[in-house]
Design goal:
The complex is a heterodimer of chains A (135) and B (673).
Chain A lengths: L7 E5 L3 H12 L4 E5 L2 H10 L4 E5 L7 H11 L4 E6 L4 H10 L3 E4 L4 H17 L8
Parallel strand pairs in A: 1-2, 1-3, 3-4, 4-5
Chain B lengths: L2 H10 L2 H66 L2 H9 L5 H12 L3 E6 L4 E4 L14 H7 L5 E6 L1 H7 L1 H7 L1 E2 L13 E2 L2 E11 L5 E10 L5 H11 L3 E2 L2 E2 L1 E7 L2 E5 L16 H9 L4 E7 L2 E11 L5 E10 H52 L14 H85 L4 H28 L7 E3 L1 H18 L2 E6 L7 E3 L1 H17 L5 E9 L5 E8 L27 H11 L3 E7 L3 E9 L15
Parallel strand pairs in B: 16-18
Antiparallel strand pairs in B: 1-2, 1-7, 3-6, 4-5, 6-7, 8-9, 10-11, 10-14, 12-13, 13-14, 15-17, 18-19, 19-21, 20-21
Classes of the chains: A alpha/beta (135), B alpha+beta (673).
Chain lengths: 135, 673
């Protein structure tokens, strides 16, 4: 949560177009949205700013989505993380859920779906104590 | 030929001949011994029989001889007692005494009959009355008679005395020696004395004194009556092949003087002499001789005994002989009969032997033949030999052996055939496996690629989809733009679906198997799709087994496969048709087979190899992943999908699932992203 009272969201994807598209989809909701093009960048940003929700691509060069998730969940378990992936499998879905992802969104998705999921994640984050919630 | 060679040749003979030869050798040895001993015995028996008869005949001859002598003695004694002799001697007046004596002599068949006075002076000679007065008192017969005796016996009479009785007697007695083989050496070339059977008796006066002597005799030389009489009495004149069986001879010393032995001209063989052997035994040693002897022209079984004169001196020989020929012939006949019987026996035994040998060796021959057949590879034949003997047992063993061989051979042949079949089967399976492997590899690499491609495409799709929707949200009032944007969004969604299908194919979620009834799954799938099918004028016919064993399987996945195949079949029949769904247990009982048979357009041969390739499709709206995914699912369970198709007639897709779960080891790994 920022000082402006806006909910802070960090979008992490190695493709800039995907990042921008997600930001465009969420712009109308009046969130404070930051973008990170790699796991490393995400970790840096996460150190200086506290985010309510993080939208993380699963497959990235360098620090993978799952590694990033694991790292965030150890340092800041209160952040709700929505995993997105172009290749969802039972295996990586389960892994992500076990580590503590809020939910899993397969690409491509509709802006409406994303908005509702982010809203749910924010609501869950406000509940606090429900560190990991079902969809 | 050496003994070794004979042995070798014998060794090479057929068994049958060997047996017969061995038996024959044994029979020959035994037979020859028997024959030899038998013939010897026969010969001995017959010859000794003949000798006994000859000895007996000789005794008969002596009887005739002595009878004759007794006859002469009696006649002389009786005649000497006649009164006219006494009167004549008494008175000294002879009158017709000579004539009367001569008459008596003829009646008696004597050669001489002579009367002497009491001093031994010849008074009258019946043959030659003109010669008288000579002194005969030195003659042993006269001497004894003068003393009152009346002796009888044999006497050698000198030629001088014979001449007194008559030239004819002297001539009869005279013999020139006929040269005789085997006779003893003898001085001189002739014999002039005679041998006489002689008797004498005293003429007794009224006072009992001897007043004279009457003596008479029979000259044996050339007188054949005695010998012929003996022959008639003893042998009854029997002849054998022109020869008299019996012969009788009187010898004077060693000279034949009276005989019925004939020489080769058919004349009596007088003048010949006895053999040295007989001479030595009979004349020198005074013993009788019995045995075989060659008499003039033929072999005889003979008996010789010495004739002694009144003083006991040996003067001649009485001989009786039987022709050996009849006995030899008899013996030969007996032996011939014996040999014939023996020969017949041998032939009989040979026949029997041949039969026995045949019986023994025939089965062996059959066996040799059978062995040859087996050697040529014909194992079907059996030996038909009865019996419990060694050969029977051999035959049985042989039959067992050929039976086993035959069975083994058949097994081998069968094996060879089965092996061929198996090789074919395996080759086919191998080819299939290879095909499947190629298919699997294709799928595996495609899966990897699909994952990457899907991921990469999903990113731009995400951007397109989001931005299109954002645009749509903003142009709620612009119908034309909305329509175009909606088209972009829908096509993007369709792209996403294609990628999703691709990902479905690439993603192999772990199977969650449960024991399930395949027929039930088929039935449920058919029920779900039946309505859609009937709309398209397609009838689904069920031919389900209904009692298949339950197998472990992922029900959802296999239902997806059946669903895919039914949808494909329906799409292959655009004008309607019949889809037959059948299930059965494979012939070997290891697989369940579910066949989907349509009456559709069929698959062109060119398309067949690519049927299961991902993205291969002939449908306008198909993703080309249905069959590939289905194939992947079935392969994962260890099964196969086989296709038979004929253009314009229809296709049959057969899913074969093993009863035993046999998850493919080369199953694709899931790839995390």
């Amino acid at each position: 949560m920022t000082d402006t009272g806006k909910k802070a969201i960090l979008v992490v994807d190695d493709e800039i177009t995907v990042c921008k598209s997600i930001r465009s989809a969420l712009v109308q909701e009046n969130y404070d949205i930051d973008l990170a093009l790699s796991g490393e960048e995400a970790l840096q940003k996460e150190q200086v700013k506290r985010y309510d929700v993080m939208i993380v691509d699963l497959m990235m060069p360098g620090i993978s989505g799952l590694d990033l998730l694991r790292s965030i969940k150890t340092t800041n378990p209160g952040v709700q993380v929505i995993m997105v992936t172009g290749y969802p499998t039972m295996k990586n879905t389960l892994q992500a859920m076990q580590i503590g992802a809020f939910d899993f969104l397969p690409k491509p998705f509709l802006p409406a779906d994303l908005r509702s999921l982010v809203a749910k994640a924010l609501a869950a984050g406000e509940g606090q104590g429900r560190a990991s919630g079902g969809s | 030929m050496s003994l070794r060679e004979i042995e070798r040749r014998f060794h090479d003979l057929p068994l049958r001949r060997k047996l017969i030869l061995s038996f024959l050798a044994a029979i020959a040895v035994a037979g020859l011994i028997t024959l030899y001993v038998g013939t010897r015995l026969q010969h001995r028996t017959i010859i000794s029989l003949a000798e006994a008869k000859v000895r007996h005949d000789l005794a008969s001859a002596w009887m005739v001889y002595n009878e004759r002598l007794a006859g002469i003695r009696d006649t002389i004694r009786l005649s000497a007692d006649r009164d006219f002799l006494r009167d004549a001697l008494w008175s000294g007046f002879l009158g017709d005494v000579g004539a009367r004596l001569d008459r008596i002599r003829r009646e008696l068949g004597l050669d001489i009959l002579t009367l002497t006075d009491g001093r031994g002076q010849v008074v009258v000679r019946s043959r030659r009355p003109e010669i008288s007065g000579d002194d005969q008192s030195a003659d042993p017969f006269v001497m004894q008679a003068l003393r009152g005796g009346s002796p009888g016996g044999t006497q050698i009479v000198p030629r001088a005395e014979l001449l007194k009785e008559g030239q004819d007697l002297a001539d009869r007695a005279y013999f020139e020696f006929v040269p005789t083989a085997k006779a003893a050496e003898r001085a001189g070339t002739y014999e002039e004395n005679g041998m006489m059977l002689k008797a004498s008796a005293p003429v007794v006066g009224r006072d009992g004194e001897v007043i004279g002597v009457l003596y008479g005799g029979l000259l044996f030389n050339r007188d054949y009556r005695l010998v012929d009489k003996v022959k008639d009495i003893v042998f009854k004149g029997e002849k054998y092949k022109g020869h008299d069986i019996g012969t009788v001879t009187l010898f004077q010393d060693d000279l034949r003087i009276s005989t019925n032995v004939m020489d080769d001209q058919g004349k009596r063989a007088v003048g010949t002499r006895v053999s040295q052997e007989v001479n030595q035994a009979v004349l020198k040693q005074g013993v009788s001789y019995l045995g075989r002897a060659f008499v003039v022209t033929a072999w005889y079984i003979t008996a010789y005994e010495p004739i002694r004169d009144i003083d006991g001196r040996i003067v001649g020989i009485l001989y009786v002989g039987m022709l050996e020929r009849p006995y030899i012939d008899l013996r030969n006949r007996v032996i011939a009969t014996f040999i014939a019987i023996a020969g017949l026996g041998v032939i009989l035994i040979l026949g029997l032997l041949s039969m026995i040998a045949g019986r023994i060796t025939r089965p062996l021959g059959v066996m040799v033949e059978a062995t040859d057949r087996i050697a040529r590879g014909d194992l079907a034949g059996r030996l038909d030999i009865e019996g419990r003997d060694e050969i029977g047992q051999l035959a049985q063993a042989f039959n067992r052996m050929t039976g086993d061989l035959h069975a083994a051979h058949n097994d081998l042949t069968q094996w060879g055939r089965t092996l061929e079949q198996r090789v074919e089967e395996r080759t086919r399976q191998l080819r299939e496996t290879q095909d499947q492997l190629i298919q699997s590899e294709k799928l595996a690499s495609l899966g990897k690629m699909a994952a990457g491609v899907a991921h990469e495409i999903n990113n731009p799709l995400t951007s397109i989809l989001i931005n299109t929707h954002l645009l749509l949200e903003r142009c709620e009032d612009h119908a034309l733009e909305r329509e175009q944007l909606t088209m972009i969004a829908d096509e993007t969604t369709r792209c996403a679906q294609i990628v999703g299908g691709l990902l479905d194919f690439a993603r192999q979620t772990p199977a969650t198997t449960v024991q399930a009834d395949i027929d039930e799954i088929v039935e449920r799938t058919v029920q779900i799709l039946e309505m859609q099918a009937s709309v398209r004028n397609i009838r689904i016919e069920r031919r389900l087994h209904r009692s298949l064993p339950r197998i472990a399987i992922d029900k959802n996945k296999i239902q997806q496969v059946f669903s895919n195949l039914i949808i494909n079949a329906c799409e292959a029949m655009p004008g309607g048709g019949v889809l037959t769904v059948s299930s059965r247990l494979s012939r070997d009982g290891t697989h369940i087979e579910i066949a989907f048979s349509d009456t559709g357009v069929g698959i062109s041969p060119a398309n067949m190899p690519r049927l299961f390739d991902p993205f291969f499709t002939t449908k306008r709206m198909g993703t080309g992943l249905g069959l590939a995914v289905s194939y992947g699912i079935v392969r994962q369970r260890g099964g196969t999908i086989e296709v038979q198709s004929e253009v314009k007639r229809g296709s049959v897709f057969t899913v074969r699932i093993p009863l035993e779960e046999n998850i493919e080891e080369t199953g694709r790994e899931e790839n995390g992203s």
